[in-house]
Amino acid sequence: MRVGQGGDGPGPHTPDGSAVELYELAPVTGEDELINAAIEPASRILELGCGTGRITRPLLALGHHVVAVDESAEMVARVPGTETIRSTIGDLRLDRRFDLVLMMSFLVNVADEAERLRLLRTCAHHVRPGGTVLLQQQLPGMLHAPTVREKGNRRFVVSDVEQRPGNIQAATLTHTVDGRTWSQRILTQNLTEEQLASQLTQVGLTLADYLTPDRTWVRARTA
Ligand SMILES: C[S@@+](CC[C@H](N)C(=O)[O-])C[C@H]1O[C@@H](n2cnc3c(N)ncnc32)[C@H](O)[C@@H]1O
User: Fold this and answer.
1) Which atom of ligand 1 is nearest to the CA of 72?
2) Residue 42 Ramachandran class (φ > 0 left, ψ -120 to 50 alpha, else beta)
3) 113-126 vs 193-202: helix axis angle to the nearest 10?
4) Can you give the residue ranges of the Methyltransferase domain (predicted)?
């Protein structure tokens, strides 16, 4: 497990505390359509931190070509029907370039600036000139306790939120699905637009715009 992160509950967990069986049950909530609308048909996509392929599957079904990367062997083993690579994002160096490099799930909010730069360097290395990097970022106010959301057989709770200097938060996320419960302690850092733009510049990318009015989905391009 990484510092400040951990997970409990049935089945295997990744080093960032994500539960493999929970992600296998997680629904798609429109992310695929948002991504599809931002790219050309039959795009070559590098998906970083793919998990069980929750988003890989619909992107493949939409006709894109996806190479799916995750550091967890248990996660990539569940990604069907496409090339998968088991690697940390920071260490990945393929001799190929992609139309889209996708890094969602708030991975850019890792609370360690050097690690964030390593992730962004990997994004920059693998995007073709003129291509797109899409990031899903966490925003201030997203993590507050108590948060309880219930829908059908699912319950989601945010608890034990701890604010630390430098816009860093620790929090516990607890998911219950059909009576099975997983919890994950996360450590994240919210970024100002200036911080994110500056780090993108350091790796040779430019913050272009946002796909959503709330600025969660960030589009960057080669500088
Ligand atoms: C919260 S899960 C989300 C998975 C998927 N993106 C989704 O939306 O369903 C985050 C995934 O990113 C992977 N991950 C986190 N940090 C990583 C890193 N530095 N290198 C490779 N994989 C990483 C974890 O193993 C986990 O599978």
Assistant:
1) 25
2) left
3) 60
4) 45-131
pLDDT, tens digit (0-9, with 9 covering 90-100), for 139-169? 988 888 889 999 999 999 999 999 999 999 9
Contacts 24+ apart (CB under 8 A), 161-168: 167/140, 167/191, 167/192, 168/111
> Which atom of ligand 1 is found nearest the CA of 54?
9
**Burial of residue 140, with CB atoms counted within 10 A of its CB: 0-12 exposed, 13-18 middle, 19 or more buried:** exposed
**Joined tokens for residue 45:** 């996509």
Query: Which atom of ligand 1 approaches the CA of 75 most closely?
Result: 27
How many C-alpha atoms does 207 have within 13 Å on its Cβ side?
Answer: 19
Nearest alpha carbon to residue 109 among 22, 169, 34: 169
Cα 51 to ligand 1 centre (Å): 5
Distance CA 11, CA 74 (A): 10
Map 142-182 to HEC letters: CCCCCEEEEECCEEEEEEEEEEECCCEEEEEEEEEECCEEE
Domain architecture of the chain: domains with CATH: 27-139+191-222 (3.40.50.150)
Q: What is the pLDDT of residues 54-92, one digit of tens each?
A: 999 999 999 999 999 999 999 999 998 999 999 999 999
CA of 209 to the centre of ligand 1 (A): 24
Three-point CA angle 72, 212, 149, nearest 5°: 65
Pocket test of ligand 1: the residue of 13, 23, 35, 94 to mutate, having most ligand atoms within 8 Å of its CB, is 23
The rounded Å distance from CA 90 to ligand 1 centre is 12
